[in-house]
What does this fold into?
Amino acid sequence: MSTQLTVVSWNFENNGGGDSAKRLQAHERLVSLSPHLVFRQEMWGADADGNAILYELEGILGLRGWLGRDSRTAIFADQRRFQPVREWSKTGPMWVLPPTALTMRYLPAGSEAMPLCLASYHLNYASGTNRLAEAEWLSTWADKKWTAPHGEIVRMPCLAAGDTNSYPVPGIEGDCVLPVLEDIKDRPHRLHRSYVGPDGTRVMDTRPDEALRTAGLEDVARHWAVRHNDPTAVSRTVNGCETHGPDSRVDRVYATTDLLTAVTGVDVVEVPEDVSDHHIVRVTLDGDSISDVLNQQAADVAA
It folds into this structure.
């Protein structure tokens, strides 16, 4: 079995809008990427008729799925690699679109290795204030504890992916430029993607990115682009349009710093606009490196 792990995150627009053929085609596209973890957003309607669409997507992907509260987000995982330890159904009071959050054991690392936390999120579209609060709550999955075999309590690694509905802090070569507020023709969208700064003027919203990175959750694409001089890692995830401004990178994968050594690549897989308004973010990781991280942390606790 290959040790490479492929992780993808995708906000598939409206979950296909009730079009089963479109949903099938979209998820067959995911299958072609051979993912071991899929972080999905906009899972609208997947809970209807006893989670019928969730199970349909499990069958297409060949992965087990977990559907978050209110059918907003989901995580799908390869059961040959991952085993659930806990579902986090209570995700905090601020969420408009609740995340799917799990504690998972990475099976190749062995039964004594530390598990890790996974979260598929979709931050609020309309309110920068609420969005910042949601990002702060998202950081709590980088602060979950695990009781080691000898009774010691330690913090678990975390991998979180989804749609931030906001922008990364500028400064990385090749990253999408921030929109100019006055150039956004859709007036409500100006409000949705900005906030009032300290000097009383509106600025584009990068606060969720800053908050998550303050909490030790690094933007994996940013990390890869800087470390490996690879600007393709920070490619657009949403196409620019006349009303909403230029290309943007609102879909991002974050990881605690202990997992960054396992990253072997980051790219964006573009999809046609008639399929979805968001592209697919793909991260590859070395499974042996993940095992080393999880076992080393457990060994450090036992020492």
Q: What stands out?
A: DSSP finds seven helices and 16 strands in the chain.
